[in-house]
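User: Good morning. I'm curious how molybdenum atom would be positioned relative to this chain. Could you predict the structure with it bound?
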Amino acid sequence: MSTKLVPSLCPYCAVGCGMYLVVEKDKAIGIEYMTDHPACEGALCPKGNAVLEVLNHEERLKYPMKKVGEEFVRISWEEALDLAAYGLARNIKKHGPKSLGFLASSRCNNEENYLMQKLSRLLGSPHVDNCARLCHSPTVVGLGAVLGTGAMTNNLIDLQNSKCIFAIGTNFTEAHPIVSRWAQKAKDNGAMVIVADPRITSTSWMADLHLRINPGSDIDLLRGMMKVIVDEGLADKKFIEERTEGFAELQANLRDYSPEKAAELTGVPAGQIVQAARAYARSCASSLLYSMGITQHVCGTDNVKACATLALICGQIGRPGAGVWPMRGQNNVQGNCDMGGMAELYPGYRRASDPKSVEFFKAAWNAKDLPLGPGLTSTEMTDAALQGSIKALYIIGEDPIVCDANINKTKAALESLDFLVVQEIFMTATARMADLVLPAAAWAEKDGSYTSMERRVQWIDRAVAPAGEAKEGLWIINEIGKRMGLDLKGGSAADVLEEINRTVPQYGGMTRERISKVGGLRWPCPDEGHPGTDILHRERFSTPNGKARIASVENRPAGEQTCSEYPMLLSTGRIVVHYNSGSMTRRCPSLLERDFELYVDINPKDAAELKVHHGDMVKVKTLRGETQARARVTEKVKPGMAFMPFHWQGTNIITSDALDPVAKIPEYKMAACRIEAMA
Ligand SMILES: Nc1nc2c(c(=O)[nH]1)N[C@H]1C(S)=C(S)[C@@H](COP(=O)(O)OP(=O)(O)OC[C@H]3O[C@@H](n4cnc5c(=O)[nH]c(N)nc54)[C@H](O)[C@@H]3O)O[C@H]1N2
Ligand SMILES: Nc1nc2c(c(=O)[nH]1)N[C@H]1C(S)=C(S)[C@@H](COP(=O)(O)OP(=O)(O)OC[C@H]3O[C@@H](n4cnc5c(=O)[nH]c(N)nc54)[C@H](O)[C@@H]3O)O[C@H]1N2
Ligand code: SF4
Ligand SMILES: [Mo]
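Assistant: Good morning! Here's the predicted structure, ligand included:
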């Protein structure tokens, strides 16, 4: 039997690195580097290098299971699909279609996500959402409001053309490691790197200037920089006049502000604010990168708007090396949002609240009726389940029982459901709560396209046989639809892509053949003759009048303040070797050996006061509960701050579920906590 090389993609983050799988007898036995891939040039981070440990893992779900009492019992696919359809249908009958909620998976391909939102909406439920809610929903709405399109303006490799990289609230060296290559190239070519992060991170090590900002004060910092830029005549007047609106309001907003005031609010010395402002405004090509340090706050949407506004007033957008880089999370979170897997958006960013969107899809899907949105967001579905208005949930490839903020509440919400079906590749904490568990084919076991954070749409063919009886998500959704009297037209991923070509304008020219070549194509790509788009907003913004809308925002306090009982500030985030819920990476021996348990970083000063030594187990308590973690005593966090990765279930027992009022994202980055030594 011969071996073959099959092109594939890394299934983790939105960098979208390509690789080859070495396939023998329908099984992957190795990987090879794809040196001509336009995002990674062959490089992979530790997770990408360990993908086979997941794909071939013995704990992969291999057959459908239903819960009987406390146990799971193996059943046939026929029974499983009937049960899924019956569980949803009986709730429609009893409580109406709006008693159903759907979570589409940003780890799954565009075709699966397109079909999932189609199922939800054709059944009459507007409540379909995805993990972008917990992640970059402020980008979709905030960047969308300012620039017209809530997506990365340039491509990743273009970072090397930047002369000043301003990275605010992103730790890309751990979360998007391959991006460090392009940032480092820029630095080697003389670029200045500015990092705004409360913690010392491997990204801040790379910085020429580290603005060690107080958590939650980004708007104060950005306004301070803008004030310097406006007062020192560094704003790009021509750009502002020709391509934006709202500058007069911004001037008024900044009138009584000063770098000194910003210094007081952010903890960053005024001199550093001035230095950062001058460097960013003066360089011939500045890039602004941001991620969860910006979005995961109650002011996440306004944070995003302030970032985009800084770029606009300096004219640092629409050119090589100049633009706004929202560092998206999951391998297909960009695609899931493009496909309408969001409560407020039909496919192609048509507003769910606009009757025209409903009319368009009624015609496209030959449907009598479709829900006028917006539906409930995933964070709102939790409350709705607790209040009894959401009765059944169909979850594909998400693990909210580890990843939601305040998971005790999510747990209570899932327990209160009449019916929960979870489609997964592993038995996760969420799957364990389900009435029905459906085993899904993983990325290498199915056809379909994925859209990376740089709007790069890449198709991969099935490379290997699915684990056990696992099935492609598309087939599962289509079969459930059939049993509920719907023809979703999901016969194959290629069929669904053709429908996407017709209904999602940005994907109009993205045929399977075109996006199958290494690196695929980048949207917008409206027709088959179109080469795809490298840089957005070169001449006009995608707003109705073509002008960007400068935002004037002010900071708001965090959802929760420290107090005598909870005197420390808890922040959470990522480490390089683990990924989100850890359901995949905690099963990889090569990753687990590098980090194997939940820990909390605390400053030596606090540790001394608490009588905690490096390596001790401690309790971390918030208003929501308590968890245990191993203390790491380190200068990486300032006194008064603690940091925990969330790749173990303990963390989100205690995080705050205060929401941004617009994007409804929880404030994962700020909670008031108390740390106690354990006897
Ligand atoms: N290894 C790994 N890679 C991943 C993931 C993973 O779990 N593991 N997950 C993927 C996903 S889904 C996503 S969304 C991305 C996220 O990628 P990132 O957003 O880069 O990751 P985080 O660690 O959540 O947060 C980034 C930084 O924000 C800082 N920060 C916290 N609060 C503030 C603040 O108030 N202001 C500022 N300026 N900074 C602040 C934190 O200290 C942290 O260093 O990563 C993706 N890639
Ligand atoms: N404290 C704290 N919590 C956070 C964050 C934080 O910074 N701090 N960040 C938040 C962010 S940005 C995000 S995006 C969320 C992520 O939250 P989730 O999306 O829940 O996290 P993942 O672990 O990526 O879960 C994806 C699941 O999909 C499964 N899967 C993988 N491939 C497939 C497939 O092909 N088919 C199917 N059916 N399943 C598949 C995996 O096994 C995994 O269990 O977490 C959020 N939670
Ligand atoms: S950077 Fe992201 S896409 Fe690339 S190998 Fe690492 S996890 Fe995979
Ligand atoms: Mo994310």
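The CA atoms of residues 5 and 206 lie 36 Å apart. The longest strand covers residues 625-633.
Let me know if you'd like a different ligand tried.
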